[in-house]
Amino acid sequence: MRKPVLIICGVLVLAAAAFLLFGRSGTPGDTSPEAGFARDMAAHHAQAVDMAFTIRDKGPAKEISSLAFDIINTQANQRGMFLGWLQQWGLSQATDQRPMAWMSGHGHNAAAVPGLQGGLMPGMASTQELTQLKQAQGQQAEVLFLQLMIRHHEGGVQMAEGLRQLSTRSEVVGMAQKIIDGQTGEIKLMTDLLAKRGAQPLPSILKPQ
């Protein structure tokens, strides 16, 4: 009788794990990569939108203003989709899990993710850096914005690439690919804009320097 009991216990454990990961009716569960990605990327995008508003309100050069406008619209819309998914999946927007915890236990070590420092997700600007951006003026503000946003985009690309390795859910994987394509293109654009101002990006978090 012991073996059937062990089998039943094993099935119950697997069922409980499946519920946490996938939720009801095959939707992602609270600890799933999809839910973690949606929550973290929503917060990540919120900071990008905030930085874009900061530089836009300083009356920068036309190409910087256009870039900021595109970032505000694209990332605000995508953030709305992330939060909408969580609502559709019956999950809360807040979590007690640390940033990038969704990569742990899936062949990744969240604590070792490049760029994850001081509890911040990859590419996120620190409070001090955000203050510097708000205080900067003229070309100095443009250069700092481009440097911070390039690093921010690198973090977004890194998170999206991580999700692609962990999920087979089409709408989430499709959004991750859009982020990779769109932000990679903007990284090139911003690098060119920095060069025109005699400046270079901050050290990349995507590869050793």
Textual characterization of the structure:
- Helices cover 66% and strands 0% of the residues.
- It contains six helices and no strands.
- The chain is elongated, with a radius of gyration of 20 Å.
- The N and C termini lie far apart (61 Å).
- Residues 1-25 and 106-112 have low confidence and may be disordered.
Key terms for this structure?
209 residues; mainly alpha; disordered N terminus
Summary, kept brief:
The chain contains six helices and no strands. It has 209 residues and is mainly α. α2 (33-56) runs antiparallel to α3 and α2 (33-56) runs antiparallel to α5.
Topology, element by element:
Blueprint: H1 2-22, H2 33-56, H3 62-88, H4 127-135, H5 138-166, H6 170-196
Helix pairs in contact: 2-3, 2-5, 4-5, 5-6
- The ordered H/E elements are HHHHHH
**How would a textbook summarize the main sheet?**
none
Low-pLDDT stretches are: 1-25, 106-112
What's the shape?
A: elongated
Distance between the termini: 61 Å
* Gyration radius, in Å: 20 Å
Q: Kindly state the mean pLDDT as a whole number? A: 85
| Secondary-structure content class | mainly alpha
The helix count comes to: 6
Strand content: under 5%
Approximate helicity band: 55-70%
Total strand segments: 0
